[in-house]
Amino acid sequence: MLKLGIEPDVVTLSTLINGFCKQSKISQAVCLFDEMVEKGYQPNLIVYNTILNGLCKTGNTDRAITFLRMMEERGFGPNIVAYSTVVDCLCKNGLLNEALELFSRVKAKGIRPDIVIYNCLIHGMCNSGQHKEATRLLNEMVDNNISLSIFTYTILVDAYCKEGTISEAEAIVDTMRKQGIEPKVVTYNALINGYCLQNKMDKARGVFQLMIKKGCAPNILSYNIMINGYCKAKRLDKAMELFHEISQTGLIPDTVTYSTLMQGMCQLGRVSTACELLKKMVASGQVPDLVTCSILLDGFCKGGKLEEALKFFQAMRNSGVELNIVSYSILIDGLCKTGHIKVAKELFCELSINGLKPNVYTYAIMINGFCKEGVPDEAYQLFRSMEDNDCLPNSCCYNVMIQGFFRNGYTSEATQLLTEMVSKGFSANLWTATLFVDLIIRSNKSILI
């Protein structure tokens, strides 16, 4: 347009800004906005809100607050949409006090808060464990004649359920019904999950059946929550009943459904059954993801089926599944625990070749493996190499190394490492402390733990 001598108008530039923001190219959007202002164009409130929304969505919280102040200074009084956008951004970044301060400013300016800004704050409070404050805000909404939505109530129901105070969640549901709002699938799912978290599966089933009775059809998440609850309660038969029920409802089991069931099977030592389920999963057209594969890999390792684990690991590689440090750690752990330290070491050395970095958990596995194999010097060498590889030893690594020294009769080295561990602010765990108490009793020495 510029090459043809045609000056873009406000609408064209506003459309470009909107496009940049949608593509998360916020720097380009801000530059174009500044250029508009410099050339004398007058961006409207929609453009200001677009930039503000773009800054918030890309995590530029400080810049969003500065931009909001600039709107106020330029006489472009931000509306409730603009303030809600920034409040939501602050809450999502854990800056609840700042969000509440901004909320107070909104009310002081005489701007009537709407349901959106209240929902943002209630959600933020629930996430930070301030459930009573969230309930107070909900009551404030009622007092201000703001119609509460199903979403508002469900935020609180979910929060109380996750906290373990289901009686409070049930009270919120009762309040909903009194207000003429019937719970929807998302609300029922929150309640079911709350009971599952407390292993009250009969109660969870009761809510599940009530949901159906009330004409609210369960979705696949409802089934997944129930199946997970039954699996954790080691009631695999009930989980499988629900799994077979899914197809009768017209729903399709997803990757989470299969993964949850496989996890339950593996935890009960039924790895062969989990393998059969994986075959059914593939046959149904569902593609196993890394989580699904890792569950079965872990099942093989914990069941002592290392040959199958190695074959399956290779199959994962061949299928194009992008292996991560968790997958490698599972297999390395299985190899170490069954005395295949040489193969474990080869896999560990392979990590850097595949662009992966061992984490503290991977290091702890290898250190423990070397110590159990009777090579504490090699374990200690690996322990000392952690810092050079940008992975500082944590409490677990120190305890594993100290216990390894004890196991191999290196009591002097264990004592020195304990002193170092304490100086770094870590504590001996129960097993490490017991080993030192035994040493004190045997040697009659005074060692400060």
Describe the 3D structure.
It comes from Gossypium lobatum. InterPro entries: PPR/CCM1_RNA-binding (IPR051222), PPR_rpt (IPR002885), TPR-like_helical_dom_sf (IPR011990). The chain is mostly helical and 449 residues long. It has a domain at 1-78: Serine Threonine Protein Phosphatase 5, Tetratricopeptide repeat (Alpha Horseshoe), CATH 1.25.40.10. 72% of the residues lie in helices and 0% in strands. It contains 25 helices and no strands. It has helices at residues 10-22, 26-38, 45-57, 61-73, 80-92, 96-108, 115-127, 131-143, 150-163, 166-178, 185-197, 201-213, 220-232, 236-249, 255-267, 271-283, 290-302, 306-318, 325-337, 341-353, 360-372, 376-385, 395-407, 411-423, 430-443. It is globular, with a radius of gyration of 29 Å. The termini are far apart. The relative contact order is 0.03.
